[in-house]
Write a structure and sequence with these properties.
single chain, alpha/beta, TIM Barrel, Rossmann fold, six-stranded mixed beta sheet, binds beta-D-glucopyranose
Length: about 725
C-alpha cells in the first residue's frame, strides 16, 4: 500500500527534480548567452575586464552593456565610500552603515542562523551602495593566537568555520551580491604575510585549511574567492596551480571568479595560467599591471591562450548575471531597523560567560543602586581603527551607553577611564613604547569610584588599533597595564564584573584565578553595548561559546611550541599538520586555560540518552544522532550541543577528537529537548596523501555529545563496515 508519507516524499522529489531541471536549463541558456557576448568582444576588451581600473572596480564593456564590476570591504560591514583612486574618504553623507559583529563574535554564536542574518544585512547594504561584490566573509583558520586578523576570522575548527561560511555566503548572495570568500588559503599570520611561504602538507590542507572554503563554494555557491597574499608550498596563492586550478576550479567545480588580494599578484603568465581571474590593488599605472598590457603581450606571444582569457571573462560575466545584471535585482537598504535588530541578535548570542562563581550575574536590579563602569573600552567604539577595513557606523552603542540605558532607571551609573589605550597600529615600536604600562593616576581614580558603588563593571581588553590587519600581537598579555587595574579595582570592590572586549585569545590566567565573574565580549557591532547590558541584566541568557582555545601559555600552542612561527627565512613550516587548535591540545593532553566550545549560561543543561539510528554504517550512509538535553535551571537558555567523533585504534595518526556536528537549541526551564543531528559517514574520512583520496576507515568510532571540547556528557559508539 502506498502511504501518505510515500506520496509526500515522491512529490517533494519530483519538485526537487523539476527545480534542478529548470535551474540546469537556465544555466545552459546563460552559458550560451555569455558565449555569445564573448564572441563579440575584442581581446583588448576582454583583458580590460581582468584588472582593476580603480581601487575597488574593474572595467566593463560599455558598447555591449557590460557594466563596471564594483566591490567593497567587509567583513565588519560595508566600508564607507572612498575616492576612486586613493584611500581617502569620499565624504559621502549617505554611506553610514550597520557595524556588524566581528568574525570571531559570529563564530562564538555557534549559530548558522546568525551568520545568515549577517550576510543578508551585508547584501542589502551593499546593494544600497551599488556594490556587486563584498569582500567577505573571511575565515582563515586561527592557527596562531597572535595573528592580528584573528578577530576578523571565525575559529580554529574547519567544520564550525564551514557551517558559518556557508550561511554568510548564502545571506549575502540572497541579495544578488557576490560574496568574495577570503583569503584562500593558509593566510594564518599577518607578520610577513606578503612574503611568507607556508609549508603545509596536503593532509593538513585538505582536512584543516580547505574544508570551509570547499563548503562555501559547494554548499554556499560562493561567486568569488580572494587568493591569499602568502605562498603555499613554494607558490604564491595568486598563481598556485594546485590551489586554484586543480582543487578550486576542477575538483570543487568553482564557477566563479578568483580575485587577487590587493597587490597580491606577482607575475603575468604564471598567474594567468594558474587560475587567477582578476588582478586587484596593484600599484603603478593601471595599463601596466600584470593583467593589463603585459597580459595582452603574453597572449600575443602565445604564452597565455585566448581560451584561458575567455574562461576568465566567462566567469566574470557569470558572476555579473547572478549579481549586478541579474533580473529582479533588489534595491537594497542601509542601516535600517531590521539591520539594527540583526546586529543586536548576533551580538547578544556571541557573548561568552567565562566565570560566574558567586552568581553575581545577572545583576539584581532591585538591590543594586550604583554601578561604577570602568575602563577605556566602556566608552570606546570599535567600528574603525587600525589598519584594514572598518565601517563608518551610523551609530555604535558603547558599553557605558548600554549600561546606562538598561540600568540607569534603577541605579546611579558613574564612569572612570582606568587605563590609557596608548597604541596605534601605524606607529613604530618606539612610538608605541610604554603602551603596556598602567596609569597609576587613572587606577587611583577608578579605585576611589569603585569603593563607593555596589558593583563595578570593568571593561578591558584590546581595541581595533591593538588587533589589526598587517600586524600580529607580540604576546598574549592584556595590553595597557590592564592587569594592575583589574587587581586594584577587584580589591576595592569585591563585586567586580570583568568584561573583556577583544577578538582573539589573551592571557587570562591571573583573572581566572583571582576574579569570580568574567564576561567575554567582542568588537560587537552597532548594538554591542545594548547586547552586553542585556546579558549583565539577564534579559539575555548568555549562549556564546569560545570559537578558539585560550592556551595557558603561548608556548603551549602548536605553532609556538614547535617553533614554526613566524617562520625562518620567510618559511613557516606547519609541522603540527592536522593538530591545530583543540586537536593539538587534546591529542597532546595539554590543559588549556579555556577550551574550544566553552561558555556558561545562567542555567544548567543535563544530557542523557545519546543514541544513533543504527549501530553499523557504511560509506555513503548518514548517521542520525539523538540526545536529550534538559534545562535543569530556572531560566530559559540556549545550549550549544557539540558532537565530536573519535576513531578508536586508527591506523593513521588522528586528532583525539573532531567536531562533526553541532546545534544550538533554546530550552525552557525544566523542559527537555530531543536534539537530533546527522553526520554523513564520508565526513569521518581522513585524507590519504599516498593514495590522494579521502578514506573512511572501517572500525569503531566514538560519538561524544559535549557541552564543550573538554566537557563530554554522553558517549556512544558505532561501527563502520568495509
Ligand atoms: C586585505 C583584504 C581586503 C583588501 C582590500 C587587503 O589588504 O587583505 O582582506 O579585502 O585589502 O581592502
Amino acid at each position: 500500500m502506498i502511504s501518505i508519507k510515500h506520496i509526500i516524499t515522491s512529490l517533494a522529489l519530483l519538485f526537487l527534480f523539476k527545480g534542478v531541471e529548470a535551474q540546469n536549463k537556465n544555466e545552459t541558456a546563460l552559458k550560451d548567452k555569455i558565449n555569445g557576448i564573448i564572441k563579440k568582444m575584442t581581446l583588448e576588451e576582454k583583458i580590460n575586464m581582468l584588472h582593476g581600473n580603480a581601487l575597488f572596480s574593474s572595467t566593463g564593456v560599455q558598447r555591449l552593456g557590460i557594466p563596471e564590476l564594483t566591490c567593497d570591504d567587509g567583513p565588519l560591514g560595508v566600508r564607507e565610500e572612498i575616492k576612486r583612486f586613493d584611500w581617502a574618504s569620499a565624504n559621502w553623507t549617505t554611506d553610514s552603515a550597520t557595524f556588524l559583529p566581528n568574525g570571531s563574535a559570529i563564530a562564538a554564536t555557534w549559530n548558522p542562523v546568525m551568520a545568515n542574518k549577517y550576510g543578508v544585512v551585508i547584501g542589502e547594504e551593499a546593494n544600497a551602495r551599488k556594490k556587486n561584490i563584498m569582500l567577505a566573509p573571511a575565515f582563515n583558520i586561527c592557527r596562531m593566537p597572535l595573528c592580528g586578523r584573528t578577530y576578523e576570522y571565525y575559529s580554529e575548527d574547519p567544520y564550525l568555520n564551514g557551517q558559518l561560511a556557508i550561511q554568510s555566503v548564502k545571506g549575502i548572495q540572497s541579495q544578488h551580491v557576490a560574496a568574495c570568500i577570503k583569503h584562500f588559503a593558509a593566510n594564518n599570520q599577518e607578520l610577513n604575510r606578503d612574503s611568507v611561504n607556508a609549508l603545509v602538507d596536503e593532509r593538513a590542507l585538505r582536512e584543516i585549511y580547505f574544508p570551509a572554503f570547499k563548503a562555501a563554494v559547494q554548499q554556499g555557491n560562493a561567486y568569488a574567492v580572494m587568493s591569499a597574499y602568502n605562498k603555499i608550498n613554494g607558490y604564491w596563492c595568486s598563481e598556485n596551480d594546485f590551489l586554484l586550478n586543480k582543487v578550486l576550479k576542477n575538483e570543487w567545480g568553482f564557477k566563479g571568479v578568483v580575485m587577487s588580494d590587493w597587490a597580491g599578484t606577482h607575475h603575468t603568465v604564471a598567474a594567468a595560467n594558474n587560475g587567477l581571474d582578476i588582478e586587484m590593488g596593484s600599484s603603478g599605472p593601471y595599463d601596466q599591471w600584470y593583467f593589463a598590457n603585459p597580459l595582452l603581450e603574453a597572449v600575443k606571444a602565445g604564452q597565455v591562450s585566448v581560451k584561458i582569457i575567455d574562461d576568465k571573462v566567462r566567469r566574470i560575466l557569470w558572476l555579473m548575471y547572478h549579481t549586478s545584471i541579474s533580473t529582479n535585482h533588489p534595491k537594497g537598504s542601509i542601516a535600517t531597523p531590521a539591520h539594527t535588530k540583526a546586529a543586536y541578535d548576533i551580538a547578544s548570542e556571541s557573548i561568552v560567560l567565562l566565570k560566574n562563581d558567586e552568581h553575581l550575574l545577572p545583576l539584581n536590579t532591585r538591590s543594586i543602586k550604583s554601578i561604577a563602569v570602568i575602563g577605556d573600552n566602556a566608552t570606546r567604539t570599535f567600528a574603525l581603527g587600525g589598519y584594514g577595513a572598518g565601517v563608518k557606523a551610523k551609530y555604535e552603542v558603547t558599553a557605558l551607553e548600554g549600561i546606562k540605558s538598561r540600568f540607569g532607571k534603577t541605579a546611579k551609573i558613574s564612569f572612570a577611564r582606568g587605563y590609557r589605550a596608548n597604541y596605534l597600529a601605524n606607529n613604530t615600536d618606539a612610538q608605541n613604547s610604554g603602551y603596556d604600562q598602567p596609569d597609576q593616576k587613572l587606577i587611583s581614580e577608578a579605585v576611589a569610584l569603585a569603593k563607593t558603588t555596589d558593583v563595578a563593571v570593568l571593561c578591558i581588553g584590546s581595541n581595533r588599533e591593538y588587533e589589526s590587519e598587517g600586524h600580529d600581537r607580540k604576546s598574549l598579555t592584556l595590553p595597557f597595564g590592564e592587569q594592575a587595574l583589574v587587581n586594584a579595582v577587584s580589591a576595592a570592590n569585591p563585586n567586580t564584573v570583568i568584561v573583556i572586549m577583544a577578538g582573539a585569545p589573551y592571557d587570562l590566567n591571573e583573572i581566572k584565578k583571582l576574579n569570580h565573574t568574567i564576561v567575554w565580549s567582542w568588537f560587537n557591532g552597532s548594538e554591542a553595548g545594548n547586547a552586553l547590558a542585556d546579558v549583565l541584566k539577564g534579559a539575555v541568557n548568555p549562549s556564546g561559546r569560545l570559537p578558539f582555545t585560550f592556551p595557558v601559555s603561548l608556548n603551549d600552542s602548536p605553532a609556538a611550541s614547535l617553533n614554526t612561527y613566524p617562520g625562518k627565512d620567510l618559511t613557516a613550516d606547519y609541522k603540527e599538520g592536522i593538530l591545530v587548535g583543540y586537536r593539538w591540545y587534546d591529542t597532546r593532553k595539554i590543559d588549556p586555560l579555556y577550551c574550544f566550545g566553552y561558555g556558561l549560561s545562567y542555567t544548567k543543561f543535563e544530557y542523557s540518552g545519546l543514541g544513533t539510528d543504527k549501530n553499523s554504517y557504511q560509506s555513503g550512509d548518514k548517521i542520525t544522532i539523538r540526545v536529550k538535553v534538559r534545562n535543569a535551571g530556572n531560566v530559559a537558555g540556549k545550549e550549544v550541543v557539540q558532537l565530536y567523533v573519535r576513531k578508536i585504534n586508527s591506523a593513521v595518526s588522528r586528532a583525539d577528537k573532531e567536531l562533526k556536528a553541532f546545534k544550538k537549541v533554546m530550552i525552557l526551564p525544566a523542559k527537555t529537548s530531543i536534539v537530533s543531528m546527522s553526520i554523513p559517514v564520508n565526513d569521518l574520512a581522513y585524507f590519504d596523501t599516498q593514495l590522494h583520496k579521502w578514506i573512511v576507515e572501517p572500525g569503531k568510532y566514538e560519538l561524544l555529545a559535549a557541552s564543550s571540547s573538554a566537557d563530554i556528557r554522553q558517549v556512544t559508539s558505532i561501527n563502520i563496515s568495509k
